[in-house]
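Team,

Forwarding the record for the chain on the shared tracking sheet. I've put the sequence and predicted structure together so nobody has to dig through attachments.
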Amino acid sequence: MLKALLRPAMIFIPFLLGICFPQAHVLNETPFYIVKWFLCTMVFMACLQLDFKQLKPRKEHVIILLLNLAMGIVPYLLLKFFFPAQPVYAVTAFFVGITPTATAAPVVVSFLNGRTGFALTGFTITNLFIALALIFLLPMVTGTVTFDFAFNVARTLVQVIGIPFLIAMAVRKIFPEAKNLPKKCKLFTFSLWSFCLFILAAIARNHFMENPGESVGKVLLIGLISLVICACNFFFGRIFSRKKFARESSQILGQKNTTLTLYLALHYAGPLVALGTIFYILWHNTWNAWQMYDYDKRKLLKKSSSPRQEK
């Protein structure tokens, strides 16, 4: 159980350090833009290990993609209707819900003895089509429906997803063995993610220092919105899929590429909105830890009961 809970526990260390050192927020400003470059590196590492032979789209992947879009749009519209004077709740729900599948989702699926190829296909489809959808959705959500803004969003997505993907494919072509690099550099990639979380926590703390009027109730409600969306993602992914793909579909829809939308939320909506995605990191990692612990426990019980049955 300790091993399964290590990942969510490690979230608190960079998060608490960021709160203690709000001065670190400057690392995401000119000339550093650390979060952007770290995100590009993580996308590059994820794309290096893509095996196109494993990509076999099924109707479940289309359903997951539609649910992914719906989980961004529907909560946004509902919260905009019920809280017209507080648009931050609706925008937060959008960024939390619209986030595509995490690069680590296929890994967790493999830990749970699921179909890795199915999860890898889901990761590829959601990240590709959600990125394209964001070009049109972000201008409407942020209230800046102009060609220049849409072009800026497209350029940002090309920079953080398109270019790292193309570079990864070129490296794979020249150095086929490079596909094994991500497995050897798991600690490096995790360190990048942790440092991003440290900077994001520093940005959030700095925001509250500069805006002392922000209420604790608002932050708690943002956390609750994030929790509800997280629970719905894992639940809907399971019930809207065929039984044999239920576990994988739940993971694809529930485990999110939070670093991407954290960067976009900071860039286009501000630190308060980004808090929703930070909360989501805690929720989905806690659920993953429980799933892996429960799976290992069941596996151990099954193994221990086998000799008795033979007698």
